[in-house]
Amino acid sequence: MDLLRSFKDNCGFGLLANIHNIPSHQNVEDAIVSLERMMHRGAIAADGKSGDGSGLLFGMQTEFMKRVAAEAGVDLPEQFAVGMLFLSDENQKEVVREICADNDIKVQLFREVPVDTN
After folding, report:
1. 72 neighbors 111 (Cβ within 8 angstroms)
2. pTM of the model
3. Are 41 and 47 spatial neighbours (Cβ–Cβ below 8 Å)?
4. Could you give phi then psi for residue 7, rounded to 5 degrees?
5. What is the set of active-site residues?
6. What percentage of the chain exceeds 70 in pLDDT?
7. Is the pLDDT of residue 8 over 60?
8. Which of 65, 63, 92, 75 is nearest to 100 (CA)?
9. Which of 6, 7, 12 is nearest to 41 (CA)?
10. Are the beta carbons of 42 and 12 closer than 8 angstroms?
11. Hey, CA dihedral for 52, 22, 114, 111, is it positive or negative?
12. To 10 degrees, the CA torsion angle through 76, 82, 86, 89?
């Protein structure tokens, strides 16, 4: 038996990068197409409708994040982190704030990310 053909339980993996470290929207578009094509390898949950947590990982664009925060009236400290959360109401935001505070983490800003539904 061919050893490579015997492995059937691996999740798919893709890596797209610009070798010159230049941000590229084309890379994002290509990554989304790659995710769509990996549906058969685990990008969809057993219910056939929802995702299983697969997604895209980006390097943090520090200057972009600082600009967005400044537009909201927030001056970010030298060291900061960004969390991407999908929250539906203020109660959920309050839970996040409380958990962060319990762990000595200060929430600086919640932002509704603009989307293009076309």
Report:
1. yes
2. 0.57
3. no
4. -85, 120
5. 11
6. 79
7. no
8. 92
9. 12
10. yes
11. positive
12. -30
The proportion of the chain whose per-residue pLDDT surpasses 90, expressed as a percent, equals 36
Residue 106 in this model has a pLDDT that exceeds 90: yes
Phi, psi dihedrals of residue 87, rounded to the nearest 5°: -115, 145
pLDDT value of position 48: 72
How far, CA to CA in Å, does 86 sit from each of 8, 25, 111? 32, 23, 11
CA-based nearest residue to 55, from 74, 95, 28: 28
Give dist(CA 93, CA 86) in Å, integer. Answer: 10
Q: What is the rounded distance in angstroms from the CA atom of residue 62 to the CA atom of residue 54?
A: 24
Q: What is the mean pLDDT of residues 91-107?
A: 96
Select the more confidently predicted residue: 1 or 64: 64
Angle at 7 between CA 15 and CA 27, to 5 degrees: 10
pLDDT band at 58 (very low <50, low <70, confident <90, very high): confident
Which two tokens mark 64? 């972009």
How many Cβ atoms are within 10 Å of 31's Cβ, its own excluded?
A: 18
Burial class (CB in 10 A: 0-12, 13-18, 19+), 54: middle
